[in-house]
Amino acid sequence: AKDSAPGVSRFFESRMSRDALALMQIQSRLRQALAQEKFILHFQPQIDVIANKVVGFEALVRWIDENGELVPPGSFIAAAEESGLIVPLGKWVLGEACRQGREWLDAGLPQFSVAVNMSAQQFKHGGILETVAEVLTSTGFPAGLLELELTESILLQDTELVMQTLGELKLMGVKLSIDDFGTGYSSLSYLKRLAVDKLKIDQSFVRDLGESADDSAIVRAIIQLGHTLQLSVIAEGVETDRQLAFLRSFGCNQAQGYLFSRPLPAEDIPDYVLQRAS
Ligand code: C2E
Ligand code: CA
Ligand code: CA
Ligand code: CA
């Protein structure tokens, strides 16, 4: 028994890569974090570029790790997706975002929309319709103020099922937007058939706006495409006045990015809104 431990670990090392072990470790920590609700949402304002007013917020999840540090989603969403934990985590995010949105309404703030990121699995086997209906009922958040951000990979998975699900979400009054638009495999034909409301231009195109002629042309084309299909268009990752000026000149409807604010903890939002208004 004394020398069995190294044997066991050699056994595991021979079967599993270091990466697989690391993944298992992060997944078990995530499972525990979920049980203890060690997650928090930060909210990033979305600005109407014509009225220059805050119209909504995107909810972005952070993990509060064992040391109390906030871990960005880029470090754990993939692991959560791989383990299926994204379904319960996504449900928590949706519930917390709507609860917070309702709290702002009750506090007398303007009617802000709240945008929530969705993973493909929530759509595939997550019972998304039941979850959304349940969350809207339990929080009392108006369906018309909830916006689901979907990636092109969600929209392309199982056309029939996805189309039907999107249609039912629309019937519930929920808004739908396509996140990271331009980075996936969007085709004009699917855009026309999908019941979406908004395109969100990926920040990779916004970054060099005004510096790169190609990126400027792409951004302008996406905005025109969106408007032709009667969709609203938002740009993410807006950091400079120069980028905003280009977006404005192209007729982009909304903008989001560090130029306006980093994602903020919920308790900072009322002050942020007040300050902007004055
Ligand atoms: P995303 O949906 O594309 O969100 C935008 C990301 O860009 C956020 O990073 C945001 O903090 C960051 N960002 C905002 N403004 C700027 C800017 O002006 N410049 C730059 N360089 N970056 C900016 P974050 O919060 O780290 O989130 C990363 C990704 O994690 C998100 O990308 C989204 O795909 C995913 N994610 C976040 N929360 C959730 C969630 O609740 N569920 C799921 N499934 N995914 C989530
Ligand atoms: Ca997003
Ligand atoms: Ca995204
Ligand atoms: Ca993005």
From TrEMBL:
Residue span, EAL domain: 23-277
Descriptive protein name: Diguanylate cyclase (GGDEF)-like protein/PAS domain S-box-containing protein
Organism: Rhodocyclus tenuis
Full protein segment contained here: 639 to 916 of 918
